[in-house]
Amino acid sequence: xxxxxxxxxxxxxVVGAKRDYISHSAISTYQQCxxxxxxxxxxxxxxxxxxxxxxxxxxxxxALEFHFxxxxxxxxxxxxxxxxxxxxxxxxxxxxxxEDIRFGKGEDHNSLSALADRMLTAFRESPAVTSDxxxxxxxxxxxxxxxxGVPDLLARIDLLTTTSDALVITDFKTSRSRxxxxxxxxxxxxxxxxxxxxRRLLPGWNVKLRFLVLTKTKTPNVESFNVEVxxxxxxxxxxxxxxxxxxIEAGHFYPAPSPMNCPxxxxxxxxxxxxxx
Length: 277
Description:
CATH class: Alpha Beta
Helix content: 40-55%
Distance between the termini: 38 Å
Number of strands: 11
Shape: globular
Structural class: alpha/beta
CATH architecture: Alpha-Beta Complex
Number of domains: 1
CATH topology: Lambda Exonuclease, Chain A
């Protein structure tokens, strides 16, 4: 873990929850639904069920981590069977934490395993994966102050590589459909925050951002998208994070009903019972 020289030890109290750092995931949770943030990060309620999409995406992520870890160690790229074994082991490790896994229509573990088989085949054969970049970190953590008066930002970078002229931050994504460059730009708030943190903690590097997207389609596809580092957008995103944190700090928690988010929320029963206290 790479950290700043100023690691503040005193936790910040937020309505009973002590957090001395924030993450993009936590901020995004609040922005989607403030009450869900409270249930997850303040009250620390157990999640009663999980979407199979989350377990599947995490297991694919573990297989990609294994691939690049082997490269980092100077080994040959792992075989398809090795990647699939890592996927299955990661699935079992995640599934054991939940009594209720909610599968999509027509899905089960066998169908998702077959999909993973095809996706990992596409991954190993993709030109987007074979590059001259040097792998220097997998699941690398950066932590430091991004905004005065706001807890440190904790960044977990999927893949960190170097080229002849840049430090490249890569984020792995799985998607039900192929991305466009516009979708990559619109999904880049996390990467832009990470780029600003890297710029401050690792001065002298030219930081570049990239998505590696694997599609969960009948014929899977693997594509790489580069994202421009715009200081204007970085400023807008950091201001949004600051305002979000101030709302969390003030204890502003309320439901934000959404037809996209509510059906898969693991706190639906708690939300229905909530009376505003």
